[in-house]
Design a protein that fits this description.
alpha+beta, eight-stranded antiparallel beta sheet, two-stranded antiparallel ribbon, 2 helices
């Protein structure tokens, strides 16, 4: 193998590893019709400027066991102590008629779903491979 081939394949492998770090698989139907179970979403780990309307991935302490949840921010509040909390909710009205039961604090935010023209960046259905392998 020539040096150029090794370099070419190395760049591809490194690029794939970096890209995978910015992807997340949707594991439920709580965000339908925007996101479906098995969709892969591209995420940004800069959560310093999350706004109402953003879709976020956060560590939910209200689930048993605690897990990461992908929901939309429907309200942002600043408490008197300076802490910012987010009220989140899944878009699927049939399975999520009410906001999530517990507010989300800044330190629970993991990532924000990337969007283009206010639409999330989604790779449909290829996440089913991950769901099957993880038994979800």
């Amino acid at each position: 193998m020539e040096f150029r081939e090794v370099l070419f394949y190395s760049v591809i492998i490194i690029g794939c590893i970096v890209a995978v770090q910015h992807m997340n698989v949707v594991t439920s139907g709580s965000m339908e019709p925007v996101l479906y179970r098995g969709d892969v979403i591209l995420v940004d780990f800069d959560v310093s400027n999350v706004q109402v309307g953003n879709i976020v991935v956060y560590h939910a302490t209200w689930t048993s066991p605690p897990k990461n949840v992908v929901h939309r921010v429907i309200k942002k509040e600043q408490k008197t102590n300076g802490a910012i909390i987010y009220i989140t909710k899944g878009d699927n009205y049939h399975t999520n008629p009410d906001p999530d039961p517990v507010p989300v604090y800044q330190d629970q935010l993991i990532s924000k779903v990337m969007s283009v023209n206010n639409s999330p960046v989604v790779i449909p259905k290829i996440g089913y491979i991950t769901l099957i392998l993880r038994g979800l």
